[in-house]
Write a structure and sequence with these properties.
The complex is a heterodimer of chains A (263) and B (741).
Chain A: H1 3-14, H2 26-60, E1 61-64, H3 72-78, H4 101-108, H5 116-126, H6 148-154, H7 159-163, E2 175-178, H8 185-188, H9 205-218, H10 226-238
Antiparallel strand pairs in A: 1-2
Chain B: H1 5-20, H2 24-35, E1 50-56, E2 65-71, E3 74-80, H3 93-96, H4 99-103, E4 112-114, E5 123-125, H5 128-144, E6 151-155, H6 161-173, E7 178-180, H7 184-196, E8 201-204, E9 211-217, H8 226-239, E10 242-246, H9 252-256, E11 259-261, H10 268-281, H11 287-293, E12 294-295, H12 297-304, H13 310-317, H14 321-333, E13 337-344, H15 352-364, E14 374-377, H16 392-399, H17 420-426, E15 435-439, H18 443-446, H19 450-459, E16 462-465, H20 472-475, E17 479-480, E18 491-494, E19 503-507, H21 520-531, H22 544-552, H23 556-562, E20 564-566, H24 575-578, E21 586-587, H25 591-598, E22 613-618, H26 632-635, E23 643-644, E24 647-652, H27 654-660, E25 667-672, E26 675-683, E27 691-695, E28 734-740
Parallel strand pairs in B: 6-7, 6-15, 9-10, 9-13, 10-11, 12-21, 15-16, 16-17, 22-27, 24-26
Antiparallel strand pairs in B: 1-2, 2-3, 4-5, 4-17, 8-14, 18-19, 19-20, 22-28, 23-24, 24-27, 25-26, 25-28
Helix pairs in contact in B: 5-21, 6-21, 7-15, 10-13, 10-14, 10-15, 13-14, 15-25, 17-19
Classes of the chains: A mainly alpha (263), B alpha/beta (741).
């Protein structure tokens, strides 16, 4: 780039073309072109902001309907043990997650009411012995290891903390699937900037870290953020023996490797 | 306003700045990281409820109990069943890799009809209805021409309800040609029948023996029930039980034995009789048994043993006569010595002479039906179906002699002689087999003298395979009616090879059928029903499961719960009741037996002048050589001195190699009277000079890319050699020559 170009660019970028004093008539023309350059900059800037903030999120997600419009509120009313009536822990302590057809069949061997959605369940799935292909809003990518038992049984956390008041919904909302990853929009959160109001608005690693860090303060165990932990791990691998005592990634397990949470 | 270069750059820079301030780059980066976990080849563990299903493995005749771990609907691991009487928690390498038979690439997904030439692998998917009706029409047509006896069935097994249903179908249809693939049990059964007069399987009380003399048995290479034998071998090591392995090649078993005696191949029977001679000469035999419970002892000594003095044994077997004498003394001096035979894993029959020489050795030391000895195990006779109503056609068909000649005047005591089938088909213009069923067997690959088999195959007009996998037989069939694999089906698995108690294992479906396959038991029942009476009448059951349940009656529930039934209190008959021969004694000699000993030594095919070497096959537990091809995981465990890339190796003693000008890794051509093949040389001190060895189970042309085209199918090189008295295929090798490629 020539010196002249650089100067023009500097002018364009600062938008300060008036402040520089044009020595001769030729400068006038440059001034005009400087304005259009600024304009193009702004157009590009604004267009990309629109693309990034508005168009991109619309393109990124496809909208899918659940196979059956499930009414959580109705079910919670009917059952005795709240969420755990259907989303229960198995005998070996593992969490069952989304119910299998067997659980549905327990009550819906035959239709109990006249709701067309229930009729659909009975005719399309129960009668044919086909599993309902539920779209799972909270399904994490394959790399994530998460133990419900540790959080619900040991730490006594409420389902709502991470999953929100889904038990109160009377309709299944639209499932927005990320076209690149194939997982639900609920993981990143509705807000494309990753901002949230409620604890259940996002389910990314930051949310894990946030809670674990605050728990760590309570238990007076010093904790590294995942990013810091990552770099510290590399340093420890490169220079073994430099590890400071009492610094662990995980408050609960007192382990420090990535594979506590990452498969 | 005109857009010049500067404006454009400005636009781009503005765009870049705006993009950087939008979530796009960060979100896309994050998403790409997640996307990279979705690649189809990245294994993702199944999520779901963990459960276990107890069932029985039927990949070999070992009869092991297995426990399959499941996550959700997917089987994820096979383990040995703890507490099972045969294998108690142990499992072999093939059983462990069994899930690859369930989920592997060579499964047949639906019934198929051939569209191209045989073996061209061009198929059309058809419905089950269509497939069964096509078979039904062909068979009805054959029957209407009074040709019902031209239907044959080759089966990989003959115990249990499924093969019995096939046999029943053939009987009521009018054919006696149900042929089981050969196994060493053919020889055991013959030996037990001739010497003890019993129809029984041989059981070996290996756990209680205190000295083992093995004539080439691959004790830790798949012989008998493999896991039971591994465990027995460990038990011997712990308790100091000595093992002597007589074998021309340093197999794993030989390497782990206490004494390895290399012997000229095919002369094992001479050693066995030589040992008997020493035991008799030195009066080391057990008098109370010989005197009271045996017949023909003197005749045996005078007519047979006279020909086997130690000097003669040394001459024939190449074993020093001092070794022969000391081996005989060691054997006779042990409290509970046990002699066993059946080369390698016992996948082929042996000559009647060899089996009986080994039985005679056991009888001399009195360990027949004794602790630590050879037991006669009766068949658990539980299949009692209604009597068949045969029409005139069926009766006439059953009167016709079997194509393989088994049970005929020439081969009176033998039930199956599969090796004779190609010869019988090739020796006439019109094949005596017009329609062939193949059940759980792969004869196109496994019957020896492949070129001759292929020729016979071409002459059979209609071939139906019931295989679950695209094996060589299925690939060269006209119609495939795929069976569920063993982890998808109910089935009774009677017996465990060489085991000492009557046992019936139950195979249970671990997962739902993965493809549009049908239980072979159901296929044959549906076929029978479609063919109408009188055939349909012989199959009164609604489906196979109903048949199985009815067969077991009140035992069914207990069987389902435990996974097996065992006669735990079984004890072998005492000597005074054990023998059902004419003399009611153990017979060392009779006319049949005498003939067997006269034909004791089976010679290898070929002239020594043209073929100076001897080629012998060897079995490896890492290569499945039975009806089933090696799954991908197991083929990966084969050493690169056995196969490297696509090349198969032949084991050659360095002395032999030097004489031939060959060295390690060099390409060579092995030729026998039956065929030739390209191989590479592996120098091995553990093979006798003048003898070369190749593994069984390689050289597949079908299955998947993990197995096909690797190494040489040894059946291309070896032909059957009939035992002069029994008719069993007693080939243990063939003469060969090796030259530079």
């Amino acid at each position: 780039m020539s010196k002249k170009d650089e100067k023009e660019k500097a002018i364009a970028l600062t938008g300060d073309s008036e402040a520089s004093s044009p020595p001769d008539g030729a400068k006038k023309e440059e001034n005009g072109s400087g304005g259009s350059i600024l304009l193009f900059f702004i157009v590009g800037f604004i267009a990309s902001l629109i693309v990034g903030w508005i168009v991109f999120p619309k393109l990124l997600y496809s909208q899918k309907k659940q196979p059956i419009d499930f009414n959580h509120a109705l079910h919670v009313e009917t059952v005795d043990e709240g969420c755990q009536s259907c989303h229960f822990f198995r005998d070996d302590g593992s969490f069952s997650g989304v119910p299998k057809l067997t659980q549905c069949t327990g009550c819906h061997e035959e239709a109990q009411g006249e709701d067309p959605e229930e009729t659909k369940l009975v005719e399309e799935y129960v009668a044919k012995g086909r599993e309902v292909p539920w779209l799972v809003y909270s399904r994490q990518p394959n790399c994530v290891f998460f133990s419900h038992a540790a959080h619900v049984k040991m730490a006594k956390m409420e389902c709502v903390t991470c999953h929100g008041p889904i038990g109160e919904s009377s309709h299944a909302r639209i499932y927005e699937e990320n076209r690149i990853t194939g997982i639900s929009r609920d993981i990143w959160g509705k807000n494309i900037a990753g901002l949230k109001r409620n604890s259940w608005d996002r389910m990314k690693m930051d949310e894990c870290a946030e809670c674990h860090a605050s728990e760590a303060i309570k238990t007076e165990v010093s904790i590294e953020t995942p990013m810091l932990g990552f770099f510290n791990n590399i340093i420890r691998l490169a220079f073994p023996g430099t590890e400071k005592p009492g610094r662990k990634n995980s408050v609960q397990t007192q382990h420090e490797a990535c594979f506590v949470c990452h498969k | 306003m005109k857009m010049d270069r500067r404006s454009f750059l400005s636009f781009v820079i503005g765009g870049a700045a705006g993009t950087a301030l939008s979530p796009l780059p960060w979100k896309v980066t994050d998403d790409l990281a997640i996307w990279s976990q979705n690649w189809s080849w990245t294994p993702v563990p199944e999520d779901g409820e963990v459960g276990y299903v107890n069932t029985t493995c039927s990949l070999c005749p070992g009869g092991c109990g297995i426990t399959v771990r499941k996550v959700g609907d997917r089987a994820v691991k096979i383990e040995g069943m703890k507490g099972h009487p045969v294998n108690d928690g142990g499992i072999c390498i093939l059983g462990l890799a069994g899930l690859q038979f369930l989920y592997g690439p060579s499964r047949i997904a639906s019934p198929m009809r051939r569209t191209g030439e045989r073996g061209e692998n061009k198929w059309q998917k058809i419905s089950w209805e269509e497939a069964i009706s096509e078979v039904s029409k062909k068979l009805a047509d054959l029957r209407s021409k009074n040709q019902s006896h031209a239907l044959a069935c080759i089966s990989g097994y003959d115990g249990g309800t499924v093969p019995r249903l096939f046999e029943r179908f053939l009987t009521v249809y009018g054919s006696a040609n149900f042929v089981r693939t050969p196994a060493v049990r053919d020889s055991y059964e013959l030996g037990l029948y001739l010497m003890q007069g019993t129809q029984a399987n041989a059981g070996f009380d290996v756990e209680n023996a205190d000295y083992i003399l093995s004539f080439g048995c691959g004790i830790i290479e798949g012989w008998g029930s493999p896991v039971r034998m591994f465990k027995a071998n460990s038990h011997w090591k712990e308790t100091g039980v000595k093992v002597t392995q007589v074998e021309p090649r340093l197999s794993n078993t030989a390497a782990k034995s206490d004494q390895w005696i290399p012997i000229k191949p095919g002369t094992e029977v001479v050693l066995a009789l030589g040992l008997a001679r020493v035991i008799v000469d030195e009066s080391l035999y057990r008098r109370e048994f010989i005197a009271s419970h045996t017949a023909g002892f003197d005749r045996f000594v005078q007519n047979v043993l006279k020909d086997y003095p130690p000097e003669q044994v040394e001459k024939v077997t190449g074993i020093d006569k001092a070794v022969v004498v000391s081996l005989a003394k060691t054997f006779a001096a042990a409290k509970k010595p046990l002699a066993i035979c059946g080369r390698g894993r016992g996948a082929g029959s042996e000559s009647a002479g060899e089996i009986m020489a080994v039985y005679a050795l056991n009888a001399l030391v009195g360990n027949i039906n004794q602790k630590g000895g050879v037991w006669a195990i009766p068949d658990p006779n539980y299949i009692r179906w209604p009597e068949l109503e045969m029409d005139a056609q069926a009766a006439a068909g059953m009167q016709k002699p079997r194509v393989d000649g088994a049970g005929s005047k020439k081969y009176p005591h033998i039930r199956n002689l599969l090796h004779r089938l190609p010869e019988m088909i090739n020796s006439t213009d019109a094949s005596p087999v017009q329609a062939l069923f193949v059940l759980e067997a792969n004869p196109y690959y496994s019957v020896s003298d492949s070129a001759f088999v292929r020729k016979a195959w071409k002459k059979i007009p209609f071939i139906v395979s019931f295989s679950s996998f695209m094996d060589e037989t299925a690939a060269n069939a006209d119609l495939i009616l795929p069976n569920h694999v063993y982890l998808e089906r109910h089935e009774d698995i009677p017996g465990a090879e060489g085991f000492i108690k009557p046992i019936i294992g139950l195979a249970k479906p671990v997962v739902n059928p993965q493809f549009d396959t049908l239980h072979a038991g159901d296929t044959i029942i549906r076929l029978a029903k479609m063919m109408g009476d009188p055939i349909a009448k012989a199959f009164p059951w609604e489906d196979y499961e109903a048949c199985l349940e009815e067969t077991f009656g009140d035992k069914w529930e207990a069987l389902g719960e435990k996974g097996y039934w065992i006669d735990a209190g079984f004890e072998p008959s005492p000597w005074n009741k054990a023998f059902e021969t004419a003399s009611k004694k153990f017979e060392f000699a009779s006319d049949d037996i005498g003939a067997s000993f006269q034909n004791a030594v089976v010679k290898a095919e070929g002239e020594e002048s043209a073929y100076p070497l001897l080629l012998i096959p060897y079995d490896s537990p890492r290569i499945s050589a039975g009806r089933i091809g090696n799954p991908p995981f197991v083929i990966k465990t084969v050493a690169d001195t056995v196969i490297k890339g696509k090349n198969g190796f032949i084991e050659v003693n360095p002395k032999t190699a030097i004489a031939l000008g060959l060295s390690e890794g060099k390409s060579a051509v092995i030729s026998t009277p039956r065929g030739s093949a390209k191989v590479r040389i592996h120098l091995f001190e553990g093979i006798m000079p003048g003898v070369v060895a190749m593994p069984t189970g390689l050289g597949h042309t079908a299955y998947d890319s993990f197995l096909a085209g690797k190494g040489v199918n040894i059946n291309e090189l070896i032909g059957p050699v009939e035992d002069g008295s029994s008719g069993l295929n007693a080939a243990w090798g063939i003469r060969a020559k090796l030259g530079k490629a």
